[in-house]
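Ticket #4471: structure export looks truncated?
Reporter: QA, pipeline team
Priority: medium

Steps to reproduce: submit the single chain below to the structure queue and open the exported record.
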Amino acid sequence: MKWFDILQSAGEDDLVVIHINSPGGYIDTAVQLISQIKLSDAQVICQIESACCSAATLIALSCQGLACYPHAYMMIHTSSGCSFGKQSDIRRQEAFYNTWLDNLFKDIYKDFLTGKEIDSVLNGNDIWLTSDEITERFRHKVEIMNRENAKIHKK
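Actual output as written to the record:
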């Protein structure tokens, strides 16, 4: 809750740095934090200091800036969980989460992973990246975002 308070009260002249060393976490909490990052008036950057795995990758890639310590790494995979209820409920939950995760992953990992890599992750394969690979991919993502923003401002 402290993170949310900081992000909500920060102004446009503020810089918020999120330090990540995490094996991952609960995806719904990550999505909540991502929403607060996007809504914040501050510039929000991420420093990956060691592990950045699973749900932590979603948070890192939602920031406007990213820096990696020399031996930091990232592991991207699909979510894990379980469903309860009648078989018909479980089928509906599975269908919902498949679509929801597809949309979330395509939104967050766009221009950081290729479309083929995103599909591979959604099909159960893990992707491991070194600090240098993370930095290069994030640089590529920012370049694409800057080009898209320049097109919008020209209109």
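Status: closed, not a bug. The export was complete when the record was re-opened. Leaving a note from the reviewer for reference: DSSP finds six helices and five strands in the chain.
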